[in-house]
């Protein structure tokens, strides 16, 4: 498995996953249909936003429907000999300070169901960490649900340390979460 920068030659595999009901946004499943519509309307613009370290793209929609200013960030797609496996993204504040309260962490990832339990998320996170360091980050925070043991294993396999139990913001449905840190 390798990470690839989203590009036109990868769109068919990505769109197939979206069409099969997978969403890159674990808190907004409807993002899959929104992304399919965005790709159909302007694939080049969609791809441009996947590599946006200057935060020039449009606002981001939160799970509650509200919109917030985009943070600098990048998206990489997990790709294997079998094709598209999932996505992982990195975002950070312009000043490299603390994340704003409406952002759950620096990194988010999602693997398509038919490629899960193959180590793709663990490998993707390991490959993304040097990119985070390259953008000047000294540590990254990741969050997960308290009952998401697979995600917790991905994070700890990459050096993640549990920072705290916390209550997710209402925009993300509230409820308990776990916050981890990986020092770079």
UniProtKB/TrEMBL annotation:
This is GNAT family N-acetyltransferase. PROSITE patterns: GNAT (PS51186). Pfam families: Acetyltransf_3. The lineage of its organism: Bacteria, Pseudomonadati, Pseudomonadota, Betaproteobacteria, Burkholderiales. It comes from Rubrivivax rivuli. InterPro entries: Acyl_CoA_acyltransferase, GNAT_dom. The keyword Transit peptide does not apply. Residues 34-184 form the N-acetyltransferase domain. The keyword Transferase applies. One of its GO terms (molecular function) is acyltransferase activity, transferring groups other than amino-acyl groups. Gene3D superfamilies: 3.40.630.30. Keywords: Transferase.
């Amino acid at each position: 498995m390798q990470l690839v920068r989203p590009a036109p030659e990868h769109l068919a595999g990505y769109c197939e996953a979206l069409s099969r009901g997978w969403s890159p946004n674990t808190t907004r499943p409807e993002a899959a249909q929104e992304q399919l519509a965005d790709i159909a309307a302007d694939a080049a613009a969609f791809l441009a936003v996947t590599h946006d370290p200057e935060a020039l793209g449009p606002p981001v929609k939160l799970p509650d429907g509200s919109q917030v200013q985009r943070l600098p960030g990048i998206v990489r797609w997990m790709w294997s000999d079998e094709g598209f496996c999932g996505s992982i993204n990195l975002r950070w504040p312009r000043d490299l300070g603390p994340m704003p309260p409406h952002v759950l962490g620096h990194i988010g990832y999602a693997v398509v169901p038919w490629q899960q339990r193959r180590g793709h998320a663990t490998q993707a996170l390991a490959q993304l960490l040097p990119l985070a360091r390259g953008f000047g980050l000294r540590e990254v925070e990741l969050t997960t649900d308290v009952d998401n043991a697979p995600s917790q294993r991905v994070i700890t396999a990459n050096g993640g340390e549990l920072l705290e139990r916390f209550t997710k913001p209402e925009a993300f449905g509230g409820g308990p979460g776990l916050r981890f840190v990986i020092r770079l």
